[in-house]
Specification:
Layout (H helix, E strand, L loop, with lengths): L3 H8 L4 E5 L3 E5 L1 E7 L3 E6 L2 E16 L4 E14 L1 H5 L3 H5 L2
Antiparallel strand pairs: 1-2, 2-6, 3-4, 4-5, 5-6
């Protein structure tokens, strides 16, 4: 987990999502990765939580110091949600989603 001063430094940076041909996503302003597997990656950004769904998803690069995440695979959807809501969810709500 990032320290408070690191979160502040990253949150001062802009957030940007670039998707290239639905095969690669480059995201900046990333604070943390909540969970990931081949079909879903959930991560927290300076603008809220993002869920990317698809097939054969792989985290190609993750650099939390710079706030950068690169995802390869077949991207089918991208969804923003309130990051406070996701952090306040309990263990069982994550298991039974």
């Amino acid at each position: 987990m990032l320290k408070e001063d690191e979160v502040k430094r990253i949150s001062d940076k802009s957030h940007k999502v670039t998707i290239d041909s639905r095969e690669r996503a480059n995201v900046t302003g990333v604070l943390d990765v909540d969970s990931f597997n081949e079909n879903e990656i959930i991560f927290i950004t300076t603008c809220g939580a993002i869920t990317i769904n698809g097939e054969d998803l792989h985290i190609n690069r993750l650099n939390l110091e710079e706030g950068q995440l690169i995802i390869d695979g077949v991207i089918q959807s991208l969804d923003y949600s309130d990051h406070e809501e996701r952090r306040n969810r309990g263990f069982f709500s994550k298991v039974f989603r």
